[in-house]
Write a structure and sequence with these properties.
heterodimer, A: alpha/beta, TIM Barrel, 3 domains, B: Hypothetical Protein Yqey, Chain: A, domain1, 5 helices
Chain lengths: 752, 95
């Protein structure tokens, strides 16, 4: 079929590399409101025992129904919540006069179908309002992914040290080869605790291995405790709600934070959606999560994100699942992790739904390494997007959990972390980390910048660590022995925090402790720092030191000396004479602005004013005419300068020239804002063009036919130079004096 | 290793704090955790393994429940496992 040229261009756009499909409820390919979703119902017997849930009698309950009925529902609030119209609860979510606790109490009495019925009434802006209110922790935070293809320990440590400096509150790693888990966990632990204590770390790995790493003290939290919304997918995930609940308690018994993981699309991807919508199944997951006593959840489709995004309303549904989790009082680490779109526009637009309201962890996580080194499935935002992300925070005065950092500070921190790893490996007799590796890790961007390591020897060391009685304490001893006392003490601080258990509370992260004679860090959680947002002027605000920090991106410069190189020494061959008179012979007036050649001596394009005058005079002379130079004092406006010139010109033709280089050819009798030719793109104007402007003006004066000049137009120039333009114009305006236009003598003769 | 262990008393205090703030199930989880502080690492890993689907017979899980209540004085966790036994029997999740 023949296509227009535009359709050709569109077909090659990144957005058209994505897959889009129509909904198919039976296959679970429907994000919300499947015709197979049940209506919300809940019934109890005389003993307060649930006898039916979302249209299903107890006799037909699967493991998930039973678990929700017996563990998840707040039966005291349930009758009221289930009887209340869903629309009323939806409105309470966006009503600033209804506190979060009131909504949360009702939500905890809702069945999964009822939860879906509430958010069904909400559009994305209302969901974002709801999320801002229901978020568990007062201040949003962010999580990083740190991995690399070569599983290089020095690079893992350096990258996690950088991630810490950049502000991430949690760092997650994983493995290419499962046996590497202990050493990867060790590397990010050492990296994150270089400089200051407090960043939580985890290694995504098989469930029992994860618990083993926690017991060894190598990780301080675990997140990949996955749950699913249908019985078959739950069992395929190799757990039951009870085994997951037991696992949650097992972690807590060792003082280790956990959060569950779920997300829309996983059941459809595993082929057992039972024809339900993705959001309904996710609501079941969230009830299981709360019922099992997990303090929080990683949700927002996570690694399945491309599946809901292939369907209509997919991105809205993903926001809805974040909202549902927060309604239930769960800490939300809200996805934005796996590669979700080829399109930079689409991926950024999707991010805004979590970035603007703020979630407990906006990403779960942000790839703090280049995408190709991300072992979690790509990283929707990666290390190459750091500057963009910092600018987004600065643009919107939004706390996205990161901070801009000076490049020198990053190098220092990276080197220190790599050196600490080198010392630990030497002390434990692991395959050495060479000086060359330390140096490479300090400056590396990606794993290809690192020398190869002997993977077989590293794996043997990993096994040795796991199956011996070595623990994190062995590592602490090694650090002390090698003189890395600060890092050792920071790791000991993290172990001490385990004994306190404060960070087992909902949405806990560690923040600096301002109290004197206390630990340097404290847990900020739903208990200590609950979200108290209830409308404008309340809740967490980006102000004070945090706002200062967000503003100070290293690229920002002082505008005060922005135009210093356009000022220069005033022209010596330019002399004011008497008041300018109206000319009586055929001439071209060149009228310049008040600062021209005096307060300013160069155009925005960097051309000396003297050379510009020479070019225009030469152009006029080449057409056999002379130019008379006049300075306009009372205005800095280009059109006005040209207009005044034309009024004075014997031929009625004048060139108006601002100091920044903007030029107009004006004609007597024209309205001020009309003209013969206007050259508003001053950054594109060259001496050759100025000469041609002189020639054209002379031709107009002689009544000749003139071909207007077409300078090349660079639409990006305005974007790049707008601050400079504003400041140059400000300087010209400052030079305004209440004086008549003056005749100016330019001590120069054209070489014609 | 013991010097970075959380104590059962601390866990129970945290459980109370959670429940006072409305996080009921998190508090219950912490109370089970307080009981599990007494279970050695390897045994804890093994118990978790036995609770996973298709890993154990009913008798094996019943002995875990009994071990929890008798050997480790963990009545809450024991009851939790007994609840699982009933559901696993109904949904055929034993080995």
């Amino acid at each position: 079929m023949p296509q227009s040229l535009r359709a050709n261009i569109l077909s090659q756009r990144d957005i058209n590399k994505e897959t889009f499909v129509e909904p198919w409820p039976e296959a679970g390919l429907m994000v919300t409101d499947s015709p197979n979703d049940p209506q919300p119902t809940l019934a109890f017997d005389a003993h307060g025992r649930v006898i039916s849930l979302d249209g299903r009698p107890r006799a037909d309950f699967d493991v998930i129904d039973t678990f929700i009925a017996d563990h998840a529902l707040d039966l005291e609030a349930a009758p009221e919540a289930m009887a209340m119209p869903s629309l009323s609860i939806a409105r309470m979510l966006v009503d600033i006069n209804v506190p979060a606790a009131v909504v949360r109490r009702l939500a905890n009495g809702c069945t999964p179908a009822k939860l879906c019925d509430i958010v069904r009434h909400m559009n994305v802006i209302e969901m974002m309002m709801g999320l801002a209110k229901m978020r568990v922790r007062r201040q949003p935070a962010n999580q990083a992914h740190v991995t690399n293809r070569r599983e290089n320990p020095a690079l893992l440590a350096a990258d996690s040290a950088e991630a810490t400096l950049r502000g991430f509150a949690e760092v997650e790693t994983t493995v290419g080869i499962a046996r590497m888990a202990p050493l990867n966990a060790l590397a990010i632990l050492v990296g994150t605790q270089t400089g200051a204590p407090g960043v939580l770390t985890q290694c995504a790995i098989e469930e029992s291995m994860g618990l083993r790493l926690a017991m060894k003290g190598l990780v301080s939290y675990a997140e990949t405790l996955s749950v699913y919304g249908t019985e078959r997918s739950f069992i395929d995930g190799d757990d039951t709600p009870w085994s997951k609940g037991f696992l949650a308690s097992a972690y807590a018994s060792r003082g280790v934070k956990i959060r569950f993981t779920s997300g829309t699309g996983s059941e459809a991807l595993m082929g057992s959606s039972e024809g339900r919508s993705m959001l309904y199944l996710e609501a079941r997951c969230l009830c299981v999560t709360r019922g099992a006593g997990s303090q929080g959840v990683q949700n927002g489709s996570i690694s399945c994100i491309a599946l809901p995004e292939s369907l209509p309303g997919g991105v809205r549904a993903v926001l809805a699942e974040n909202l549902l989790a927060s309604m239930l009082g769960l800490e939300v680490a809200s996805g934005n992790d796996a590669l979700a779109s080829h399109s930079q526009i689409r991926k950024s637009a999707k991010l805004m739904l979590q970035f603007i309201p703020g979630t407990d962890f906006i990403f779960s996580g942000y790839s703090a390494v280049p995408r190709r080194d991300n072992m979690f499935g790509g990283g929707n935002f990666d290390a190459e997007d750091f500057d963009d992300y910092n600018v987004l925070q600065r643009d919107m005065q939004v706390d996205g959990g990161l901070r801009p950092v000076q490049p020198e500070a990053i190098l220092k921190r990276r080197r220190e972390a790599a050196l600490a790893m080198q010392a630990i490996y030497a002390h434990l007799n692991f395959p050495p980390i060479t000086d060359i590796e330390v140096e490479a890790a300090t400056y590396a961007h990606a794993s290809e910048d690192m020398p190869e390591r002997d993977i077989v020897a590293d794996l043997a060391a990993a096994d040795r660590f796991l199956y011996s009685d070595m623990t994190v304490q062995t590592v602490v001893e090694a650090l002390h022995a090698a003189g890395f006392d600060d890092t050792a003490r920071n790791i000991e601080q993290m172990l001490y925090q385990r004994t306190l258990g404060d960070y087992l509370q909902p949405a806990a992260i560690f923040v600096p402790n301002s109290a004197v004679n206390q630990s340097p860090i404290r847990a900020a959680s739903a208990i200590t720092d609950p979200n108290d947002y209830c409308g404008p002027g309340t809740g967490y605000r980006v102000t004070g030191a945090r706002w200062d920090e967000i503003q100070r991106i290293p690229q920002a410069q002082s505008p005060r000396d922005f135009i210093a190189d356009r000022i220069g020494t005033p022209m010596k061959n330019l002399h004011d004479l008497a008041d300018a008179k109206i000319g009586s012979y055929n001439e071209v007036i060149l009228a310049v602005g008040p600062a021209f050649g005096r307060h300013l001596t160069k155009t925005i394009n960097g051309l000396d004013h003297e050379r510009v005058l020479e070019a225009i005079f030469t152009g006029v002379a080449k057409e056999g005419m002379t130019a008379r130079l006049v300075r306009v004092y009372h205005t800095s406006d280009c059109a006005a300068i040209g207009y005044v010139g034309a009024e004075l010109s014997g031929s009625g033709i004048a060139i108006g020239l601002q100091s920044r280089g903007t030029t107009v050819i004006h004609k007597k009798g024209f309205p001020r804002l009309h003209n013969l030719e206007l050259f508003s793109f001053s950054p594109s104007l060259t001496l050759e063009i100025y000469e041609n402007i002189g020639r054209n003006a002379a031709k107009y004066a002689q009544g000749k036919t003139v071909t207007p000049i077409k300078p090349s137009i660079d639409n990006w120039a305005r974007l790049r130079l707008i601050v400079k333009t504003a400041l140059l114009h400000r300087r010209e305006t400052e030079a305004i004096e209440n004086k008549n236009p003056k005749e100016v003598y330019f001590d120069w003769e054209p070489d014609i | 290793m013991s010097n970075f262990s959380i104590s059962p008393e601390t866990l129970r205090a945290q459980a109370q704090a959670a429940q006072d703030a409305g996080f009921i199930q998190l508090g219950e989880n912490m109370r089970r955790a307080a009981e599990l502080t007494r279970v050695p690492n390897e045994r804890l890993l093994r118990m978790y393994e036995l609770l996973r689907p298709g890993r154990s017979t009913q008798a094996e899980l019943e002995s875990v429940a009994q071990e929890l209540s008798e050997k480790y004085d963990a009545p809450l966790t024991s009851a939790y496992v007994r609840e699982a036994i009933q559901v696993y029997a109904e949904r055929k999740l034993f080995r």
